[in-house]
Amino acid sequence: MLESYLPIFFMIAGGIAFGVVMLKLNEFFGPRRPTEEKFSTYESGMEPVRTARERFSVKFYMVAVLFILFDIEVVFLYPWAVSFRELGYQGFVTMFVFIVILLIGLYYVWRKGALEWD
Amino acid sequence: MEITISDLWQSAPMVSLTLTGLVALLVESMKGGRTTAVYGLSLAGCALAFVFSLWSLGSEVIVFNGMILQGGYASYFSMVFTSSAFFTIVLSRPYMQRLHREQGVLYILILFATVGMMLMASAMDLIILFLGIELMSVCLYVLTGFVRTKVTSNESAVKYFLLGAFATGFLLYGIALVYGTAGTTNLKLISQSFAQLSGNSLFLMGAGLLVIAFSFKVAAVPFHMWAPDVYEGAPTPVTAFMSTGAKAAAFAAFVTVFIRTFAITGTPISEVVAFIAAASMILGNVTAIAQSNLKRMLAYSSIAHAGYMLSGIAAGSAEGETGILFYLAAYTLMNMGAFGIISWVEQQDDTKLTFDDYAGFSAQRPVVAAMLSVFMFSLAGIPPFAGFFGKYYVFLAAVKADLVWLAVIGVLTSVISVYYYLRLVMVMYFRDGNATIEERVPGFAFAVIGVIAALVILLGLYPSLVVDISKTFFKL
Amino acid sequence: MILESIVFYSLAVASVGSALLMVTRRNPVIAALYLILNFFCLAGLYLTLQAQFIAVIHILVYAGAIMVLFLFVIMLLNLGDERKLSDAISPRKIIAGGLSLALLLELLSIFVTGTEGLPEYNADQALQVGTVEYIGKQLFTKFLFPFEVTSILLLAAIIGAILLAKKKPD
Q1: CA B315 to CA B70: how far, in whole Å?
Q2: Chain B residues touching residue A102 (CB < 8 angstroms)
Q3: How many CB atoms lie within 10 A of CB B35?
């Protein structure tokens, strides 16, 4: 039965191999004129290495929580999509109600300004 | 296998309350959404759900593919929950306005918590029970921490959440073991095979974990640690809601699983519950004596009351069930009344919460003092108030189930409890002082507490009003 | 069958190893990363049990979303230098160790007593239960009502998150 996962295994292996090969090719063919600045990690202009022990704004946390909540919604969509044909009209109505209820939540989130960064 | 219109119609209390919550949330989100509109809508939703419950009290059906029970037992509990929610909403408004923290979502969360409670009382499947407990608990965690500007409110919310999450773990593990041994989560099917299952140690372990989870929710010893701190730190109307609606819901789950599904009389489960009951009665009452803060005193008293009601569970009989049902109605009323009045006297900075702050209260506010005395007498279980008959029925059930020792502990600890309940009455009437209510109490809230006091007396005089109804509920 | 045994045992060793590494790491971020590795191993184990749905969900929700939240919380707490955390043996640790040992013995006893008293399961049926199709069908027919209730639960959680974590309450 494990054989049935073989395509997925190839997919993952291919994905990793592609990334590694591309990087290595670049290293091999690309011109290399290293300076100290170039060796440092690019962090959008921020200092790349410093202590990570500092306080993060609670805003990050709220985005993460909202992400999880809507992620769980997607979890329910997955088995629904797989058996969509079998479930037919009834299944559609069911998911419609589910999503409408969560849309009300999204509307609330939006109106309260929780999606804005400030 | 599908949700039909008739299913929805038969579960009108729950469905109407959910829809009210959703509409209220839309109103709250809209531009210029008025808090008053949400307040009115929420009250109307509770009243409507109450009327639907009252209406369906006589008929019992199992709907949604064997998932929930509607009517009868479920309707009775729905009435308790919706009244608790109604009173809480009425009391919250002036309280939150004083703190300048009034937001419409407060009422919406109370509505959704009530829907969770209804699910707990109507569950015919462990999955529904779990969802109901979670829905109620998530709303309560947030409500506890609603006053974000207060450290005590935040602290109690975190405590409640962390310990509540542990209790959920116990609950899920218990459900998993029960499912693993019974092969189903449907309570009706489990009750049919209970005779064989009760000898299985894995099943008993699962049942034991369920006892732990429910004991946490009803705040019974040794799973009571959270209650005093959370009751003290939460906004007082929310405390009232937790100690009435949430406690009643947890007992509804207890009764559903341990009396109506499992026949626990004479099993080790019954012994465990009896032990928890005895410990709660002793520890709750003895510790309550030492409290000077009224919210903490009522928290320990609520632990003790959980102990009294658990004697009914330990009995595991129909009498026990009837006793608990009556007790919960009485307890919801008297505790709601007591917390309501405390929330009026209390000051914004958490002062005026001790016994001493009530010195001379009777001279300043004679009517309110009289009502508070009614609630205290009833909580102490002094006839002719409702609290007396609650105790009478559960202790009677314990005696009939050969748990005489438990009833004796119950009676003795009740005597202890008289001391601290009447201490408040004594301070109000016989000690000099100028305790009063500083802010104006809205007429509506005042009238609601008056009605509650009247009901406490009415149920004490005519307990059969409730008892006769609860005897007709069918068994699984 | 040999292939399956190899896959199972290597995943089992990796999951136990990553779990041990997780609880012994002093740096919480590294511990969290080992937890992610552990989740992946568990997902692999679920796949060998033909429980594809739970395997996918495990990666999607736990290794993905929940772990992001874990890392945020670690950073929000601002623990400071974790080397300062005491390592002394306290009575609390001894009690916790005793309880863990009791749990281990309890689980081992199940291996001794076997599956006596448990309902019989048909192996073919058990294989079917974990598939996405089966779960979808059950969820949207038999467990339709609990599914709808979940949406209310999620909604309550959304409201709660905003109420408690929004920076500027209005």
Answers
A1: 25
A2: none
A3: 18
Least confident of A32-46, B54-68, B97-111, B155-169: A32-46
Chain-chain contact of C119 with B181 (C-beta, under 8 angstroms): yes
ipTM of the complex: 0.93
Contacts of A83 in chain C (CB under 8 A): 132-133, 136-137, 140
Rounded CA separation C65/C53 (Å): 17
Q: How far apart are CA B264 and CA B214, in angstroms?
A: 15
The number of beta carbons lying within 10 Å of the beta carbon of residue C85 is 9
B291 and B300 Cβ atoms separated by less than 8 Å: yes
Among C76, C105, C121, C163, most B C-beta atoms within 10 A, so best to mutate, is: C163
Does residue A116 lie in a domain region?
no
Q: How far is CA B138 from CA B142, C49, C78, C157, in A?
A: 7, 33, 26, 7
Judged by CB atoms closer than 8 Å, whether chains meet at A107 and B26 is answered as: yes
Confidence at A42, pLDDT banded by 50, 70, 90: confident
**Helix, strand, or coil (residue B378):** helix
B363-388: b or e for each residue (b if 16 or more CB lie within 10 Å)? Answer: eebeebbebbbbbbbbbbbbeebbbb
**CATH number of the domain residue A82 falls in:** 1.20.58
- Closest residue of chain C to B115, computed from CA coordinates: C152
Residues 6+ apart with CB under 8 A from A38: none
Q: Distance (Å, rounded) from C-alpha B76 to C-alpha B81?
A: 9
B202: left (phi over 0), alpha (psi -120 to 50) or beta: alpha
pTM of the model: 0.92
Residue that is written with structure tokens 């609670």 in the block: A58
Give the separation between CA B370 and CA C144, rounded to whole angstroms: 51
Angle (nearest 5°) at CA C142 between C140 and C145: 70
Domain count, chain A: 1
d(CA B154, CA B147): 7
Token code pair at residue A12: 């993952």
Range of the domain at A21: 2-111
Question: Can you give the C-alpha Rg of chain C in angstroms?
Answer: 21
DSSP B63: E
Residue A76 has pLDDT above 70, yes or no: yes
B109 neighbors C156 (Cβ within 8 angstroms): yes
Residues of B within an 8 Å Cβ radius of C: 1-3, 18, 21, 25, 64-65, 67-68, 103, 105, 108-109, 112-113, 115, 119, 125, 127-128, 131-132, 134-135, 138-139, 141-142, 145-146, 148, 157, 180-183, 199-203
Chain C residues with CB inside 8 Å of A97's CB?
A: 148, 151
**Token pair belonging to B3:** 């949700």
- Identify which of A74, A62, B161, A76 has the alpha carbon closest to the alpha carbon of residue C68: A62
Q: Name the helix (H) or strand (E) containing B154.
A: helix B151-182
- Is residue A118 included in any domain, yes or no? no
Ordered alpha helix ranges (H), B11-71:
12-29, 35-55
pLDDT exceeds 90 at position B331: yes
What's the length of chain A? 118
Q: Which tokens sit at B325?
A: 């049902």
Asked whether the beta carbons of C64 and C70 are under 8 A apart, the reply is no
